[in-house]
Structures
1.
Amino acid sequence: MTSIAERNATEVSVPEDRFTVTNIPTRPLSYPPRLVLYGQPKVGKSTFGSLAPKPVFVCTEDGSSGLSVVRLPADRPCQTWEEFLQCLRGILTQDHDRETLVVDTLDLCESLAADYVLRTQFKGSKSDYMSFYKGPIMAGEMMNILMMALDHIRKTRNMMIILLAHDGLLAGANALGEDFKKWAPNLSKYAWNRVRDWADQIGHAQSEFTVMGGKAKGSGKDRYIYFRGSPGRDAGCRAGYEMPDKVKLNWDEYQKAMKENNNGN
């Protein structure tokens, strides 16, 4: 009779190839980037997304209404979380030639998630929703569903993902002194912490300015995407998706920098 230890040894001795240790490093997985681009209103986020290769916009607001793009829903922005997921389902399953998925905007997507949680989990009671911040925490957790769906589309349809968002000030914890605020997408910390860890690239779109006498003044018409993070700004890039500290808010400049910084990919 075969002992349990012998049976276990036999089972472990025939692993699948993907669990086999080899001495040959695997090549990097070349999936299209997942870019979060946030910035002030009217800075040109939607225009940037419209110039990506064959974009399809999933709209939660009408920021792209003046652009000639493929958009879902076709008649108006998503009104509910269910409509938003239906748009993603269509992009995944329908026959189309789109190469870039643009969510416009992520902060209003979180608002749809919050409304869904309010309706389905708290029967419309805002006081119960806000009690111990249970509702906002659950709405932030809904971003996990969004990211899983986007990853499935990215890998199945080989599509780039661009999430557009308005900017805001997020409280930053400082273990060595007073807390501070920094530029970040206008999301709750419950949502942003998840999206921030998921994204390959986080860029802050902003017009150039200088500070004189404690006041900010514009210093030209050029607008840039800042990819270098700091205590005052959430930004950065994952290995394999590196970008310069800043590039002009222009699709051609972004694409050129991607190729120069990532071995032509």
2.
Amino acid sequence: MPERPTHTSPVVYRSEVRIERVKGPVRRAYLPAESQPVVFGVHGAVAHHYKVAPGAVEPRATTLDYVVAAAAG
């Protein structure tokens, strides 16, 4: 079997993100180029799936919501 080349491209960008747990499923993400943190949480069916009681936390967009929005853009 032929050998595979071992050459890889240099890293062009490495994201430096800090995540801070706030309460339960709520997280604050400090992202590059953003002056304020982005707050992630749960809502609707996701909150129900993770057994977060209604009214326990303010409904927030999930990390999945952001991934879908980024991929769709």
